[in-house]
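Progress narrative, work stream C.
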Amino acid sequence: MSILVKEHQFHLQTDHTSYIFHVMENGELGQLYYGQRIHDQAAFPELTVREEHGAIPAWRLDHPDFQPETLKQEFASLGKGDYRDPAFQITGPDGSRISEFRYRDHQILPGKQRLDDLPSTFDDSDDDAQTLIITLVDAVTDLTLTLSYAVFPHQDVIVRSAKFTNRGQSTVMLDRALSLQLDLPDANYDLLQFSGSWARERHLLRQPLRSGIQSVGSLRGASSHQQNPFIALARPDTNEDHGAALGFNLVYSGNFLDQVEVDAFGTARILTGINPTEFGWQLAAGQSFQTPEAVMSYTSAGLNQLSQQMGVFYQHHLVNPRFAQQPRPVLINNWEGTYFDFDEDKLMAIAREAKQLGIEMFVLDDGWFGHRDDDTTSLGDWDVYAAKLPNGIAHLADRIHGLDLQFGLWFEPEMISIDSDLYRAHPDWTVVAPQREMTPGRNQFVLDMANPAVVDYLYGKISKLIQAAHLDYIKWDMNRNITESFSDTLPAERQVEFAHRYMLGVYQLYARLTTAYPHVLFESCASGGGRFDLGMMYYAPQAWTSDDTDAVERLRIQYGTSYGYPLAMMGAHVSAVPNDQTGRITPLDTRAAVAYFGDLGYELDVTQCTAAEKAAIKAQVAFYQAHRELFQQGTFYRLDNPFAGDGNVGSWQVVSGDGRHAVAARYQILNQPNPAYHRLYLRGLLANQRYRVSGDDHVYFGDELMNAGLFIPHLLATTQGVEASADFSARVFTIDAID
């Protein structure tokens, strides 16, 4: 049993953690403990002790030490003495914003069921999951609050969400509805956030918690390039291999908030969920509102372990089971090779060359529809551009499939161009506030995904192409964020629901397509990594990690991303140089050495490559295919942090489940004169097993490679006399057990 209940005390146990809360005297829920697993007991008096503090309101006169502001709470409201930011807030029909949800009952269910209309976690494999449902009632408004706790014991993960149901006769307004609250007894933690912008997403920033509120979030209608819904808290001495850490992630793709508040008593409150700014939900009699799910996990074994257990959890309990363990194809995308300048002959030439190099899928990117020769036209007109492809998409797809290549197609379903037949027919389908000018972004505007007619139109168009071209893959892009949020389908008092309803429309379209065409692999994209989140991963098992394909920048982007997401979720491509985003020229081997650690692809015109480059690409593809299961399903370790020190070196490693095989890579951005000695300390090997390292005649025990390390010669020893630069170097090592 993962869920233990004694009286009004709830103890959620995973293999290595305990999460304990109880019903307090006032009928509300109080948090007691979250951390390393402890024995279950009938009561935990040391965790429930209270002291009276001066100048602080109390619950009642006969309970002067019951002061909400000083208590760890489970899902707090505002207005009854707890002045910290609350998990929710409701405006009643009389304008009151006070809620008192008291415990009514609970039930324990086997497994974990999916949510309706939202991406969610599941237990389809009988992995010993259990779900605790707590029901609380507000007697004044006759609302019920249902708190859900799904326990996945073997990954040390708990998934939480909340559901508000109006059992009364009057409409109420839900002003704030977060998914998870966790009150910790102290604030001696560092906050790890993953911030940036377009082309430099998810850079690691680690800093100590301070008094007051610190938060990350988005109001862009997407989880955003700028911030990510994954955050972690780590003790100051926690590193990759040792120490306590907590991870939090939201299964949602729209406006979000991750917040930590440190109060006057040095305690920390974590909140995560839909961003309360630009959110509201009118809850009529008999209606319910379900929050997105939030994932939390704890470990005492360092940040690598936190990432690993959450990554394994996603692969088994979030990603579409059809694709979770399925090898992802090595693809070539024509975008950076041709941009809008292509015809069928050019595309076929690239495809034929790609096939000779061992590549498995051809993806046709932007420019195949409407009359699109640049980014100013045709979004929404999902019919083939006859001037470029006079024989149609189906004919091209047949020719691609005839080469024994899979075929994929780019869409940007959520967008519309002013110069399009769709806009001329339905200007009312465009997101714009009445009597306001539309704010352009990338010469395009946003379709109202809160409008069911828009979802129906897009489903019809995309379905027709999937069937005609027998598509194997869809790249779903989203190249701008939302402005002038407004929907013609909503009355004035419900316009605050737009942002969430927009996301529900996106999810509905994804759900309809993935249900009707389960064989199609979807890859999420939003100008690269602008919607790299678990909500998208539920439907699209991999995402384009960033529009920035420069190997040096991708080292940091993929390193930061790895804290919250496994390698199988990261689309990683080799592109031409000079790189389009940075102008940097890096060696082809280095570009591949970074892209190996993800879902490998190429984004260049291989017909323009030299014979030597083609030979190198062919060898890279073969190497990746030989180790694909390891790269996509192995256990990933971060070794050297490119955000630390002078940022000149980064390294990482992936290890097979049995510990007998590994691939490690070390990257050095700039060469240095007269450098110090360098060693690479591996992880995850079997201490008593002997290994051979590629390029090395010696035999090593696993404990030597992990504790004494592998000597790395300085670069001039290997590049002297070579015309290419010694900068931007990468070294890839295979480590294989020998009997």
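Work stream C, second folded protein:
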Amino acid sequence: MLEQTLIQTLLLLGGTVFVVLVFQRMRIPPSLAYLLVGVMLGSHTAGPVVAEQGIRVIAEFGIVFLLFTIGLSFSLPQIYALRHTILGLGTAQVALTTAIVGLIAWLSGLPASAAFVVGAVFAQSSTTIITKQLMEQGENQTRHGRLGTTMSVFQDITAVPFVVVIPVLGVAAMQEVAGALGMALLKAGLAFGIVLLSGRYLLKPLFHLVAERRSAELFTLTVLFVSLVAAWTTQSLGLSMAFGAFLAGMVLGDTEFRHQVEATIRPFRDVLLGLFFVSIGMLIEPAALPEIWLEALLGTLLLLGSKVLLVTGIVRYSGVDLPTALRTGMVLAVGGEFGFALLAIGLEGGIIDSAAAQIALTSVLFSMVLAPFLIKANQPLSTWLNRRLGNEASDPEFPSVSMLQPASGRHVVICGYGRTGQVVARFLEAESISFIAFDMDPIIVREARMAGHPVYYGDTADPIVLESASVVSSTLVVITHDDRTAAVKTIQLIRQHQPSLPIIVRTRDEGGVEELRRAGATEVIPETLEAGMVMVSHSLLALQVPLYRVTRYLQEQRASRYPMLRELFRGTLDAMATPDDADVERLHAIKLSAGSPAVGHTLKQLASEMQEVMVTALVRGQQRYRYPAEDTELQEEDVVVLLGLPDDLRQAERSLTEGV
């Protein structure tokens, strides 16, 4: 038994590695490679057969982790912010595609529930194929590229209600669907409440505790545990495991650990999702293709045609020009991987029979094969269609080089948010230059985020963290941490995709300068140079150079920056390195709750009571105010950022929270 299992595992892994390598060399999406492996090793073809049951059980976790990752990308505030634009366009596209395709399928003779599943499957688009092809064409930052990518990602969110609804269709008679669906939605609301409350009061403190241990192994175990516990919670309520994983991801997506959690779960997701595609491939019956090829071809034409027309109409109705709307429709026409998941749920629940599922499955596969060619030709096709419609205006977006630039503008990535990273951030903030920072010290991350800084917990030597930070669209990367090995790896990863992106690196001494430059660093700043400037000032004084001239030299370089250089958050490593730091000033963020005696008082009154500390910033809602006016009146939920000595800060915190 053990030997047979080992042989089947080797067949699965060996076949997958070989086929994926071949497909990657041919620049064909890996998802199609996994499907082909499933066909080759399934029971419907000649040759070796791998047991399907075990693969399907394991592959189900691929969908769990996929929904978990999608949840990380869409926190509640983000979904609320998109409600008037992408939310409306995405909802209209999915709803109309499901309704129209479902109606056509029902008129063709399918039962209503099966027709609904087909409509839901056809409404999905492949984010993987879309983003990969657009990036290869250099169109990922064009207007139609951004619209297509964002709407395809939004479709993954709309798949969550389908995950809840489709199983209900299988367990209830048609006259009982409304009641069963209402109960399912009630359970979904209960699950949302459970996960949301546990996330707010349990998950965030748990991840802070785990991050403080600085153990990658423990962090990975925690991510797996949290995602699977959430999946088990919704399954216990009679809902999909994937729905619970999505909720957990959505809760964590609003925390500073989002990027590192995504980097941790992604390898598990990709491998298990590959197994999921293999399990889908095992459902394909090549022998049935001669009988269903016409229906599958018609289904492909229905899928591509309906989505091109619907998306074009919806985007055009929203006020976008016709050429851009047409190109967006062509980008989104492809079928999606998540449609396979919905199809598998429908098959498992007995909602759709095998014959109809084979036609739908083959139709989606055909569309995925044709998609790269359709996306590649979106510009000439759009131009041709415009001319046929009598619109001779050229596509204003395609030839514009400026439109290919990142939408974020002057975007800087800071790797390491210790003393140096915070100083860099201060000056970027003073120049109104946007930035995103990463650090592995959870205390610094927590305090900085509380004070309104865009800082996340994450290791930038991980390619997934760099990808989530949008390094490819940034204008500068600054590496300020002390880990030279990690710095070299980060530089090499960036250089694989952005050979010309400026990278400035800080190092302790000149010993690592050459290694970092060979790796691809644009500039390397050893701390010994800064120490040398101090030595120069003392040397000039010893040589009888007038004090005013030495002072002028220093003032020209750094005098105006001294306040910013002192404003630092201090983490666990700082405390370990300098335990007797009672004479070192630091920043500390304090949140005012309802019982705080400071609520209702002005900053001027606060300054008169706590003369030993200084208010450097005030965070109210989503806004951060640096050096706020003295007449500013403090409110509940305000975050006050204080600068002072540790003992004075502790006394100030007691004064602010007294009576809470």
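The first strand starts at residue 411 and ends at 415. No further action is required on this item.
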